[in-house]
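Hey,
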Amino acid sequence: MQMRLKDGKRKVLTFSYDDGNAPDIRLIKIFNKYGLKGTFNICSGLLEDSDEVRENPVGKLTRGEVSEYFKNSPHEAAVHTLTHPWLESLKPQEVIYETVQDRINLEELTGTPVRGMAYPFGCFTDEQTTILRSCGIVYSRTPKSTHKFVFPSDWLRLDPTCHHNDEKLFELAEDFAEKEPRWDICNMFYVWGHTFEFDKDDNWERIEKLAEYLSGRDDIWYATNIEIYDYVKAYDNLITSYDGRIIHNPSAVDVWVKTFGETVKIEAGKTVRL
């Protein structure tokens, strides 16, 4: 039995942007224009102390902007710690506080459980991944580019495909879009960065070009980080009979699999007999 993605697809595209910078709004609007989804890792302790939504935002997002753009939204708000410290320099209780308080603040602003994260400065220790699990964090992204379309073996060491300024970005995008995955696997293209970099480098056209190129494709699932995590875990939790012809899905997520030569949908909470 092999995993297939939502609607039986074999490719998924996701984005991850850090810090909670005001230009996040411009990127969200680009994603909305092209039907893409993104995960935005927000330091809630650094948000502007205002419930307003500004016409021409600068600096950090306001509390009001986080609510406006992430409550009942296709996009995901995720933890980036409260104040963006070097985690390696913190005591365990400080890591817990920075993580949990950021999570609490974001959940209050978005009305949604927050379970994902990106490491500030990309730094962490093995001990801290255990701490994050105890804080209810189920995945955390690193800045380490793989230049591959692979799913992580450890979700608390989630490596992206590449940064949006990577010289191989469009080469990778073409490979992802135009080539079929190997017969037995699915592909994940994962792009990350900071939206302030688009202003600094004056290259907003780069992400718009990428979004336009990859949008509207019937063979790509456009998803947030947490949607992908939940889907893969639902697949992992499928229960099969010894001969593989009875499959039970105990999760709340519909799952597609390739088995005995056909792609089969296993609805949430249902059992399929082949």
